[in-house]
Design goal:
Two copies of one chain form a homodimer.
Chain A (H helix, E strand, L loop, with lengths): L20 H16 L6 H8 L4 H6 L3 H26 L3 H17 L2 H16 L4 H15 L5 H20 L6 H12 L4
Helix pairs in contact in A: 1-2, 1-4, 1-6, 4-7, 5-8, 5-9, 6-7, 7-8, 8-9
Chain B binds a DNA duplex through helix 3.
Chain lengths: ~190, ~190
DNA sequence: GCACTTAGTGTACGTTCGTCCACATGACGA
DNA sequence: TCGTCATGTGGACGAACGTACACTAAGTGC
């Protein structure tokens, strides 16, 4: 039998020292943004999602902006990592092109979460220069990854095209002919696969 | 000497019947969104910007969603109108291509407002299907405008490319070589100007 | 000019928000 | 074991929010 009164079981026996706390908050923040948008994100919702006390929010982050910055930084980095790894795995321009086509198809079809988070970030970056660093770094890494297989100018064009194709595919409710995207990419790369 | 107390002069002697009121609210709403984002838009801010009483908000619009829908509808329509007019003015694919290149250059350089509002709309559409109708109609009109000069498949590709180029140009802080965008567009159209 | 309808408004309510700070708690050297 | 310190917390506070509704003002037929 414990000699101190137990904290309410529902809150759980939170250990005081929790080294992953900050990371958990960031992860929870991304989930909240994905569900409610930046517009609907609040310290309270994030705290609830991460199962941490409200006070932890201002303890770990100076304010909403810092939290958003950290969350989107993590998001952009992880997406960049994934893209870079895929490009690194390709063994030549032809295979790289095939992978790019697959990415455009898959992104549009599957990942709603990715789409929402990306746009929330772009929207933030469009208005507040403080978030431009994030998008800049992301774009720079995308281009660098593409430059493994294409010349710099083509890499830039491809990067922009991927962006536009992904957006239009995702937002359009009518079904798309996948061949159109593949053809567009081929016209940019100039490869005759 | 008036027998009734005057309303405060600062608020002005608002006429009761004001047929443009709804439109003024919509216009003010767009300005608020451009400045504070959807996240920072409230009935109160819009009412202040439009110089109408708070009660007018719920009188003219059932809620924030309806207001946003009306505002973005107006925005998308006006942008579509502009683009369509420009395409209609072009006298052949070569001129159309030149105009498209100019649009990409200008949009990135000048219109911060356009960029912000566009992304706010996309973000909304990405999360809430209720706003997809707006983006769908917008995209459909863009494609139709391009189809004045290009075949349907090329028009789709061009539309997506314009999107991507505009975004990347606007968000990138490093200066861009305009020739890259022009070259990308040429690769898609296949024209040898 | 009066009675009645319609259009529009001011305000108060309950909710949710971010921030703050007095305090509780675990870590740790003596 | 105890005292001290840094870490972390709970709850209170004022500001801002959307909504609802009793009301005023303008329009309209007589």
């Amino acid at each position: 039998m414990p000699d101190r009164p137990q904290p309410p079981a529902s809150r759980g026996n939170r250990r005081r020292h929790d080294p992953d706390r900050r990371e958990r908050i960031i992860a929870a923040c991304l989930e909240v943004i994905a569900e409610f948008g930046v517009a609907g994100t609040s310290h309270r919702k994030v705290a609830a999602a991460a199962d941490v006390p409200l006070g932890s929010m201002t303890y770990h982050f100076s304010g909403m902006d810092e939290l958003l910055h950290a969350a989107f930084g993590r998001f952009a980095t992880s997406v960049s990592d994934g893209f870079d790894a895929m490009m690194a795995a390709a063994e030549g321009p032809e295979e790289a092109e095939r992978i790019v086509v697959a990415i455009v198809d898959d992104t549009a079809a599957e990942s709603h979460r990715f789409l929402v988070l990306t746009h929330e970030l772009y929207t933030l970056a469009a208005r507040e220069p403080a978030f431009r660093g994030l998008t800049n770094a992301w774009m720079a890494r995308s281009r660098a990854a593409l430059e493994r297989h294409f010349d710099p100018a083509t890499a830039r064009m491809l990067d922009a095209l991927i962006e536009g194709l992904t957006i239009h595919r995702a937002l359009d409710t009518e079904p798309h002919d996948p061949a159109v995207a593949a053809d567009a990419i081929r016209r940019i790369t100039g490869l005759r696969t």
